[in-house]
Amino acid sequence: MRPQFAPASNDAKPLWPVLKGAAIPAGANAGDWPTACGFSGKSGDICLLPDGKGGVAGALLGLGGPTDHARERFQFAAGKALPRGDWYLADLPAGFDPDQIALGWLLGQYRFTRYKGEAADGPRLVCPEGVDAARIEAIAAGEFLTRDLINTPASDMGPDQLEQVARDLAQEIVASISVTTGEALLAANFPLIHAVGRAAEQAPRLIDMRLGDHGPMLTLVGKGVCFDTGGLDIKPPSSMGLMKKDMGGAATVLGLVRMLAGTGAAQGVRLRVLIPAVENSIAGNAFRPGDVLTSRKGLTVEVNNTDAEGRLVLADALTFAAEESPDLTLSFATLTGAARVALGPDVPPFYCDDDATATAIQAAAMAVGDPLWRMPFWAPYDKLIEPQIADLDNAPSGGMAGSITAALFLRRFAEGAGRYVHLDIYGWQPSAAPGRPKGGVGQGARAVLAALPQVLS
């Protein structure tokens, strides 16, 4: 589905946002009806206003207090609380950002209906005055793409299908695309990508998309592990059940590309997208614990856990990215459980050595409600990723600082890639929340989109 605002129409009904404890707007002509219905303006309250003919004349929406997350209230209203039909904002209290309200509404419309065939339509919003409807729709469309890709099971979203999605997107935004697949990866010197994916029925590949021919160069790298069994270090069932989401980095990058193209933010930028797309499977030719692999960069890697495969495929992709000396490189990956232990599912950590870039991303993340939290490339931990018989260890023992050591591993391969930012995302909403149904979710893309004008200036 594509998110869209309703056209302006005389049939649209008014929606009156009300702060908790505030007077009901006089224009609502509500009389004593809200009080009789127990409406107080608390967060998430809905009061439908009768038209005197058995129909609905409008509605009141409780915003809670001024510091509550107002966007979530509109996501809730768009998701389940209001009846179908077209609505418009009759008024908005001072201090609320209409752009964020409009985006919240569209995000609240998301449904994943590929396998259930349920109707996806619900209440629609007429775009508030002063809001750039096309821009907000483009941002929501990018998020919808990310969610759809993560929610699709690996039976229908393997490396073949992920490549096709990338090709379709490239055609949509008029970008060029090339793909290196299977044994050609060895000939082209992508040995780690090949090693991780060679045991799967669908061949491993590296997707390379480009858009724009002038301006600063921005490279996005997304982990595309379409399913992760853990390899020969097989995951237990409780850990394997969500592994269709292990391509969440690639899904987020593709969603961000749609946002960049749809909002015009890609203009004046040389955009490059690299997605190593693999399935980490088990077969006689699977890579093994204890193997020492030589990367594209020439660094050797001792495989101490085949379930730490994401950093391997990203290593070759980051090396390839650095060969063109971009101005800014960002990697998105569902990389470590340690990040979830540290910050939970809602707040992904990001790593960046450049203070100005990190500050801009952190500020943008908070401004647009796409939370991120900066973590350190802690150099003293470098010794943890240096085993005895190879240059690097893909899975240091001990379990401490797992997200940091993974980021340090990646940084070894991002040398020369300009300012480097790594986002260790989760890509999954564990339980339903306003605008975020249980399932796949984008993380970090809107924050990066908002920060780019400052970061690339």
From TrEMBL:
Keywords: Aminopeptidase, Hydrolase, Manganese, Protease. GO terms for molecular function: manganese ion binding; metalloaminopeptidase activity. Pfam families: Peptidase_M17 (PF00883), Peptidase_M17_N_1 (PF21337). GO terms for biological process: proteolysis. It comes from the Bacteria. The keyword Manganese applies. Residues 305-312 form the Cytosol aminopeptidase domain. GO terms for cellular component: cytoplasm. The keyword Chaperone does not apply. Coiled coil: none annotated. PANTHER family: LEUCINE AMINOPEPTIDASE-RELATED, PEPTIDASE B. Belongs to the peptidase M17 family. This is Leucyl aminopeptidase. It comes from Paracoccus homiensis.
